[in-house]
Amino acid sequence: TVCLRHVREEEVFESFLKNDVTHFCGAPVVLNTLMNADASLHTNLKAGIKVMTAGAAPPAAVIRGMEELGFDVVQVYGLTETYGPMVVSAWRDEWNELSLDEKSVLKARQGISSVLAGAMMVAHPETLEPVPWDGETQGEVFMRGNIVMKGYLKNPAATSAAFAGGWFHSGDIAVCYPDGYIQIKDRSKDVIISGGENISSIEIEDVLFRHPKILEAAVVAKSDEKWGEHPCAFVTMQPGETLTAKEVIDFCRDNLAKFKLPKTVVFGPLEKTSTGKVQKYRLREMAERV
């Protein structure tokens, strides 16, 4: 086992070669850092290193970039309350002949229950009625089984609310596809409600990550006098690249419905935790000030 104190691309790639690494774990932001590292670091990499990614919904563009470098990416999903990976994006042999773009889209889905998981469903957050497996109808992810926590320490009120109806409420909004694989659309607290329409911040971020000049992106809600809220995009550019807000919005216009377009674009580095997670609550505060 190799442990690094900091995520530094030079040290990570050096460790891959020096220690003959076969498997590693990293949040999507770590994969994005490695994918966008100097091309000289990508040389002499052994193909087939297996990557387990979790902690946030990875954009398909990031998965594709890692696969192009020869990595084999597997996504898992869970929470602290579910002993980590409750769901795994299990690969199926019948997908082997698909294009890299198609494979990346499939791997961007969170997946199906792991063998240890117990039960998982996507259902209406109040009635707990399962949603249709149509890949479109949204609901909350619910879980139960022997790797789900018993409750919150000395907090019976929070425990009761979390297990209302006999299922653990994840707070994640998802869809379920006909093959039983789920895909997270947003945290319930991150959904943007604009003019009565629910907008997934993850969907907009996935589009932004496809732009070749954009290194990182995050989308949050910003107050809007007319619509209630609108999407505000925070964008970090690739080194030496520039874009205008109009160019970012026009790129989104080619890939999203009009009501989902970001109306505000802020350029600069994203605020993150020590583990690389984007601090969306801080971005929401910043969005209200611009």
Description:
By secondary structure, this protein is of the alpha+beta class. Helix 3 crosses helix 4. The protein has helices at 9-18, 28-35, 60-68, 100-107, 156-162, 201-208, 245-253, 280-287, and strands at residues 23-25, 50-53, 72-79, 84-88, 112-113, 119-123, 139-144, 168-176, 182-187, 192-194, 197-199, 214-224, 228-237, 264-267. The protein has 3 domains: 9-113, Rossmann fold; 119-188, Luciferase, Domain 3 (Luciferase, domain 3); 191-287, ANL, C-terminal domain (GMP Synthetase, Chain A, domain 3), CATH 3.30.300.30. The protein starts with 8 loop residues before the first helix and ends with a helix. The strands form 4 sheets. Strands 1-2-3-4-5 form a 5-stranded mixed β-sheet. A 4-stranded antiparallel β-sheet has the order 6-7-8-9. InterPro entries: AMP-bd_C, AMP-bd_C_sf, AMP-dep_synth/lig_dom, ANL_N_sf. Pfam families: AMP-binding (PF00501), AMP-binding_C (PF13193).
